[in-house]
Amino acid sequence: MAGELIARVRGLDKRFGDRAVLSSLDLEIGRGEFVALLGRSGSGKSTLLRILAGLDPAVEGEASVDGTVSVAFQQPRLLPWRRVWRNVVLGLHDQRVGASGARVGPSGARVGASGARVGAARGQDTVAGTEADGGGRPVNGRGQHVDGRGQHVDGTGQHVDGRGQVVDGRGKLGRGRDRALAEKALSEVHLEGHADAWPRTLSGGEAQRVSLARALVREPDLLLLDEPFGALDALTRLAMHRLVEDLWSGHRPGVLLVTHDVDEALLLADRVLVLGNGRIVSEHVLRRPRPRALSDHLEVRTDVLADLGVSEYATT
């Protein structure tokens, strides 16, 4: 890995109780570099991704990102009461909101998209001490939906003025610009014409493409992909591989892809890392130009499978 760094991890330790998940882990990701991270279940792959996303600050060591971060998870996490375009621009003007639509409070506790903490006591809003409606979204004494700062929002979470017109966080009309940004991002993932669709009408692959559009609309310096294709069928997954490769080529963010799929890693990444015993145990640099075929890296595939402890299945 050469060039300017977008992410740096040094001596990172993470424990869950007495169990060490990450131990003195070191990692660097270059600006515009595509890195795939493989490892057995429970090896700490998703934990590392969450730390880089700022979703898990309770660690020891250094984990820093020089720029903006977006995340796309295995589940698209679309809000069913918002149309597709509003899901794409969800939290775009609030730096505390990640691409998943989940907001993270100062303590790292997950809170809802409207600013209400997600807690055990349903119907309670611990942000402002207000009541919550049946969907867990905070309302003021007049029954109006409000955000975490008590500002009036409509039923979809958009700020509105006294006449009910959608405005941005500064009280200026902002819907037109956001809609244009959403439509541009949707066109990049081949979902033209779906801006006004409801999430429940989308297929699994379409929903995941909306998730990618939501991540890319922020023009991130680092894109974190947490097994985003794991729930898709084989044919849809292959199409998503091509789409992600095209999007990466067009935007050139640094990428960290967490996956269990060795072939997926070999097709997409510049480097393939294997995580084991809490640290990076091997690194494989892929020099073949894209687009690639699986036959381009048969020897590397055998080595990666051996690193994962499944060398008995490493056949061609």
Automatic annotation (TrEMBL):
Domain ABC transporter as annotated: residue spans: 7-302
Membrane-spanning ranges: none
Pfam families: ABC_tran
UniProt cross-references to PROSITE patterns, sorted A to Z: ABC_TRANSPORTER_1, ABC_TRANSPORTER_2
Region Disordered, residue ranges: 99-174
Coiled coil ranges: none
Residue spans of biased composition, Low complexity class: 107-123, 157-168
Keywords of the record: ATP-binding, Nucleotide-binding, Transport
Protein name per its UniProtKB record: ABC transporter ATP-binding protein
Source organism of the structure: Amycolatopsis acidicola
High-level lineage: Bacteria, Bacillati, Actinomycetota, Actinomycetes, Pseudonocardiales
